[in-house]
Amino acid sequence: MHMEKQRLRPFILALIAATLFGAATPLSKSLLADIGPFQLSGLLYLGAALGVLPLLQRGGKIAAPWRMERHTRRLLLGAIFFGGMVGPVWLLVGLRLASAASVSLWLNLEAVATALLGFFFFHDRLGRNGWIGAGGILLSALLLTWGQGVAGWAAGLLVAAACFCWGLDNHLTALIDGITPAESTFWKGLLAGTVNLGIGIVVEPFNANLWQISLALVTGVFAYGLSITLYIGAAQTLGATRSQLVFSTSPYFGILLSVLLLHESLTLTQVVSAVLVGICVALLTIEWHGHDHDHPAFEHEHWHDHADPHHGHAYSVTTESTNHSHRHLHTPLVHTHRHWPDLHHRHEH
Question: What is the pTM for the complete model shown?
């Protein structure tokens, strides 16, 4: 029973993250009338930093980037640049050109970008079910672009570029093991948000009122801060590709809110696409692989518990099922079990 809960937990985290992130698109669409893309991106990500502060205070520490190990710092800076600075701006520029529902659906391309980058560069392999899932999500995105005008295609290309940046960001954050997910989210939000807001104020007038600023920050707290933290936690267990494909359900929560808040129409094509993505996500939840594999000795830090054979080290937490984070040493281990390409299984098989 415990193993089943452990298996379902990262999928549940990714699904909650998807729900929260899906709300960002229609809410951002309503704010873009008075706030520029750079300015709004900055406010959203500063909100993300605010959103994870309680988690950081509970953990009792915030690791400064200049005190991180070089490997961790490089991964974090790459995630900040691609995922926090470039990707959000391209998304918001595209969102100005198209409906929130259309942009929500195009965000499915992030899963495809993540899968392709994982296959070619990050040793995040997919089996038959995984490729069927990725192909089905790509098919749903192509179906939804059919019949769009020039502005729609321009918006689609901008969203696709944003999805490529986020696909790269997904793999970089999944490999960060020197700091907690909350710390990753905090620094991404603070640094990317400050830079983009500063650029936005320089390139165009800042006309947002207090209500709009507050709404942007609150959206950032939940749709980016809490959502990204939950996503990173899932990605470090499932691997970036699988967690992103579960996260690809977020556009449909965006569509629902687009209909309810912005009074946009819901088409039969969108409904069919939603069903297709649901089937694809179900395929991913049953795809593990198993083989003999060798864990060499190494030391790192990440969130974990002591219910699996990779974490049998001594610790000060009194409850064995408690998730916690500290630097720990893995002793050499050779064994066979079913697994995903998480932090401990980033190999070629």
Answer: 0.74
